[in-house]
Amino acid sequence: MFNIAYVGPHDYNEEQLIERLKSEPAATISIDTETISLKDRTCIGIGMALNPREAVYFPILPDESRYLDLCWELLSRPSTKVFCNALYDLYAMTEYRADGEQGGG
Fold it and tell me: What is the domain partition of the chain in residue ranges?
């Protein structure tokens, strides 16, 4: 299974992508959670658009990304956050954290 997915114009390897995410904060990020269904809000992954041409995805299920701590760090930065369905996405992420995330790296 993969730890992080990237869509965009660059050909980053995993190490380069992680360094980029840590060192170049985006002014605005768009966030979307992936869940099992609308009824079962079990969070299976978190996607973030960094700009109109780049996005990353952190899987949670079936195998949790070892970079999930970086995901939470990106979410906690003072950048502007854009959600399509904020209440649903925030609930899914909060429930995941409350249920005891396994931790990332």
Answer: 5-97
pTM check: above 0.85: yes
Amino acid symbol at 52: P
Complete DSSP assignment for the chain? --S-EEESSS---HHHHHHHHHHS--SEEEEEEEES-SSS--EEEEEEEEETTEEEEEE-SSS--TTHHHHHHHHHSSSEEEESSHHHHHHHHHHHHHTT-----
CATH architecture of 5-97: 2-Layer Sandwich (3.30)
Could you report the per-residue pLDDT of 86-96, keeping only the tens digit for each? 999 999 999 88
